[in-house]
Design brief:
- The protein folds into three domains: about 90 residues, Nucleic acid-binding proteins (OB fold (Dihydrolipoamide Acetyltransferase, E2P)), CATH 2.40.50.140; about 90 residues, Nucleic acid-binding proteins (OB fold (Dihydrolipoamide Acetyltransferase, E2P), Beta Barrel), CATH 2.40.50; about 80 residues, Beta Barrel (OB fold (Dihydrolipoamide Acetyltransferase, E2P)), CATH 2.40.50.140.
- The chain is built from four helices and 15 strands.
- It starts with a helix and ends in a 9-residue tail after the last strand.
Length: about 280
């Protein structure tokens, strides 16, 4: 920045305090950039910006604010070089909720009660946490974070009213909630299996599903491995149904253990070497 006006803007911004709530007027609103705010005390130009994720938890972002509207927003960052104050309307409209969520750090263990089960995830009413202005709970668990094992419905893993301990993953500023993981607090059965087997080990289990390029076999409780088409038989096959059916109990050989991707690859044909 340069010039007397820029010096006054820098001086004004330097007087703001992160965490404090300030009033202003919305001067420009865009879906992608958010809202530009002319802060009270510096009418020359807008020095405040409310990002799209910091607008409101109570309504769709596009309807959160209009040009000319008076707004209250919390200062979350100040950039003197750019001459901007980053603001959050979401923090200002529910300071108790923001104050609870903002200090949380990844890896913390939070306890609470399952408040609702929805098709897109599970809400948790957190102990010590305030009520959410929109949702049944401040905590939220996506389906992949419910369990290490496969399941058909969330009700197979948790039930409303159940007490749970979860690991905090991140503060979702868009929805004003704590993203949680239930499975992170439980031992990963894949790791336990991978520690107990090696390539070449023979395992036995039922065929659980067939796909175009192979079959899945459950080799231990909740852990499945893939038998690729080429590993189903020594003879070429075009579909897994030519060799196995769902429910068949088969013996397989471990040919690869991918710990990073939590994947197990198996061979049916190598379990029957005499069939070549």
């Amino acid at each position: 920045m340069s010039g007397a006006s820029d010096d006054r803007a820098r001086e004004f911004l330097a007087g703001l305090r992160v965490g404090e709530v300030y009033m202003g007027t919305a001067t420009d609103v865009t879906r992608r950039q958010g809202v530009s705010v002319t802060l009270d005390g510096f009418p020359s130009r807008p020095l405040g910006t409310v990002g799209p994720l910091e607008l409101s938890w109570r309504m769709h972002p596009a309807a959160a604010v209009e040009v000319g509207q008076r707004v209250a927003a919390e200062v979350i960052a100040i950039d003197l070089d750019q001459g901007q104050a980053q603001l959050s309307m979401a923090a200002a409209e529910n300071p108790e909720l923001w104050a609870f969520l903002k200090p949380l750090r990844r890896g913390e263990i939070l306890t609470g009660t399952i408040a609702a089960i929805e098709r897109f995830g599970v809400f948790v009413a957190l102990d010590e946490g305030p009520a959410h202005p929109v949702f049944p709970g401040v905590g939220f668990i996506t389906y992949p974070e419910l369990s290490w094992r496969r399941f058909e419905a969330a009700s197979d893993v948790v039930r409303v009213g159940q007490r749970v301990s979860c690991e905090f993953l991140q503060f979702d500023t868009w929805n004003g909630e704590a993203r949680l993981s239930l499975r992170a607090t439980q031992p990963d059965p894949f790791v336990a299996l991978a520690d107990s087997i090696t390539v070449g080990r023979t395992l036995r289990g039922p065929v659980t599903s067939l796909i175009s390029f192979g079959a899945f076999v459950e080799v231990t409780d909740g852990i499945e491995g893939l038998v690729h088409l080429r590993e189903l038989s020594w003879e070429p096959v075009e579909a897994p149904e030519e060799v196995v059916r769902v429910g068949d109990q088969i013996t397989v050989v471990v040919i690869e253990i991918d710990r990073r991707r939590r994947q197990l690859f198996l061979s049916l044909r190598q379990a029957s070497p005499d069939c070549r």
